[in-house]
Fold:
Amino acid sequence: MSLAAGPGRGGGGGAQGQLPDEMKVVVEKHVAYIQSLDTRREELEYHLTEHLRISGIYWGLTALHLLGHPDALPRDGVLDFLFSCLHADGGFGAAPGHDPHMLYTVSSVQILAMVDGFDELEKRMKDGKLKVAKYIAGLQQPNGTFAGDEWGETDTRFLYCALNALSLLGFLPSQQADQPPLIDVPAATAYVKACQNFDGGFGTEPGAESHSGQVFTCCGALSITGELDSYLGEEGKDRLGAWLSERQLPSGGLNGRPEKLVDVCYSWWVMSSMAMIGRLHWIDKAKLTAFILQCQDPEEGGFADRPGDMVDVFHTVFGLAGLSLLGHPGLVEVDPA
Amino acid sequence: MASHGIPRVSGTLVDKSEQAKEKERRQIERYKAAEAEVIDRIRVKDYSATTLQATSTLLAQNPEYYTIWNHRRLVLQDAIAKEPTRTQPDDDIDAADLTAARLANQTPAQHQIALLLTEDLAFLLPLLKQYPKCYWIWNHRAWLLATATQHLPTSSAVTLWQGEMGLVTKMLGMDSRNFHGWGYRRTAVAALEGLSGGDVSLVEPEFEYTTKMIRANLSNFSAWHNRGRLIPRLLVERQASSEDRRKLFDAEFELITTALYTDPYDQSLWFYHQYLMSTLDTGNKHSVSILEPCTHGDRVRYLEQEIESIREMLDGAEDCKYIYQALLEYSMRYLEMEVEAGNQKVTTAERKGWLEELRKIDPLREGRWNDLESKMKL
Structure:
């Protein structure tokens, strides 16, 4: 996910003036909630979630961009923290002292892209961009997929992460036509295609059940390599679009697989996939908007997985990204891939 | 940071009593102390049993802390690397262990490695039950088994993997949709088949397992999915004739039709029906083949049969959207194949009526029905 360039719909909630209260995004409260996240050191939960810290910052920062307050977290502070997670091999850990991993490396690259920090990376590490790109490329397996780290777990999540980060760094083979390729793109896309099922969806590996999260990562991967349209074709898009549209339940919310509970985070995984294949109009946007807004905490800010549950920054960014994709007033536009 | 299904209690942040705050402070201190214990030891490459125990303490409290799992593996790797140097029985190994090793065809070193790995598998059990969706626990388990396969005699590795089949059956008994569980099950099956050098196939028992899971709860698409994945291999291994293939195809239709009569509102079942129908669809890149040969006549006949059978389901379930969806989808495919005969079996008026009902029952997907209408050129 990255933010689209160009004019947004304006921030600050001013554009929401005409909406009834229950339809308003409480922009200021979400900003304050995200700003408060790093000051909660007196809570055990803060320490128990350190293994997610850099991704948490990425989610928070993306949410702030969507809310039209990109500067609400101090850039210098973010960069200092980010570089304290960088290892000599070019990988990033989740927090200082945590081991490097694909998940936190892609979050870091996304943050650098968002705050325009690649020059800073070059300053702090000689050939920093290339080193990070090589760390990612080094995790590709002979069958085309990517491991999360040196210990070898593979999953289509990591494959998407690799392509996303390399494209932001400008090190995809197509972006470096005069250089030997860092990764084997045809092997990666062949692997993605092998993860597709008869129902049009994709799983974590060949043979695995279709899952909305994996539909997002696989469509995202094919979209980055420019093959999504030609590979799926109209029939393939209809089949996948039908499966995705059945994720919407009468509450308006979306689930991740057949006969599972709805969850705000699928507002992003399902909807962005539908947008990538041009089938976003196959679900009821008004009902989904209402559902996402019911998951917002109007007093303290933040979004939860379902109405009435505890909020967290993960569901906050995916709730806001979902609303942005739905064209909700007061939010900046987002790019589905 | 990513919480699921935990009710929101408004104002907890401000309302904590001084006593509660003090309690939380002490918890944080203990947690940070446990963390420091592991990190300090790993920094000086202390890969002792005490360090292993320190990682256990911390991981039991926070199994999401991936770096600590990595540290734990460093300790285990170190212990394993030291074993082969121990060629002679020494004071650490008692006579009973030596006998056990001999019986299992293991060297004393292998026996010690087996004990170490088995202990670690046991440590994971309660954690897995408490956190069945934690990627890192499943991941560590898979690493332990891969390590066992690398270092132990095949027979020992097979015994361990068989234990894993038992474990994953228990896990799927607790949550029959856990996709970590289903993924791990496929890994275990592939490992056991691989270790047998091709002599053992688990396709039949695995197919049987999906039948059992479906009978326990029809609404289990994970089981239906796996079943659909197993069928092509099952047929090959049974060396099924055309007639056998047709029999299985018919039996699957019978199974799913009975299920659909039980609950036509369950989309898991409709997706399995779609799976069976996809085997007749030459346009689907990811469909598998069941009937061999599968002639034009077969395709038309099964489409007719299923359209007829689903039409009958409408009786008493007129408000079930999936029935109309299936009728529209299959009749569209049918008409593409058999325009003239098709027009007699399914009329345009009937198709218009189905679409009309669908719009009424399922307004959420109105945009999709609009596109479907254009596609059907009604």
About this structure: DSSP finds 14 helices and four strands in chain A.
